[in-house]
Amino acid sequence: MERLVIDTSLMYCANPEATGEGGLVALVLMEIAIGRQFRIVLPSGLEEEWERHMSSWSTSWLAELESQRRVVRRFSVALDGAAENRLNQLVSYDFDGKAMQHEFKIIQAAASTDSAILCLDERARCFFSRAARREALIRDIVWRNPLETNLCPWLKGGAPARNEDRLRAHFCRRSHHANCVEGVN
Question: Which of 37, 136, 156, 162 has its Cα between 20 and 30 A from that of 89?
Answer without folding.
Answer: 162
